[in-house]
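From the pipeline queue, job 12 of 40. The input is one protein chain; the requested action is below.

Action: predict structure.
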Amino acid sequence: MEIYLIRHGETDQAHAPDPFSASLTERGRAQAQRIAEWCVEWGIEFLCTSPVSYTQQTADAISERLPQIIRWDLDELEDVNADDLLGDPLASPLVERWTAEQLARAYEHMWNRVMAALTHIQLYAQSRGIKRVAIVAHQLTLQMLLLAWTGRDWRALLEKGIPTIEPGASCKLVLEEDGQGQVVWMNRK
């Protein structure tokens, strides 16, 4: 199975009322169109995406080019948010204001939901003979997925040196029968 991890196109966070309602910029829309063309070339059969507006806009470009594609919009693929703090009454709604302890707790919770979504995606694809899956998500979600395939977990995110994934970047994970995989970057600076 091949799983393509795709970061959404560039967003305009400065003009959004909150971080989850930002839209793609003109450049981001062009990135989404390019990604859609690549998905056609890659033969994507199954598309999974976060429910956040800019990931939806990126996935919409793919769905328009591949109208027959199976598509799942999964809350579990959303970026870290206040729900990941499990009702902490002292938490700010802004992630950048969280304490190190709050961030660690949120990452652990996010890890659990992202890994559950990944298992669900893989089981569905395997049971239906789907060979090529695309996941459109946020940088943190994609970093967690990459960590899982390299034998690490959410705690690595608290360390320095985890590379960023630019808007519009994508990579292919080739999964072997034993669950091991190889990461191939497709369009990364």
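Job complete. The chain has a mean pLDDT of 89.
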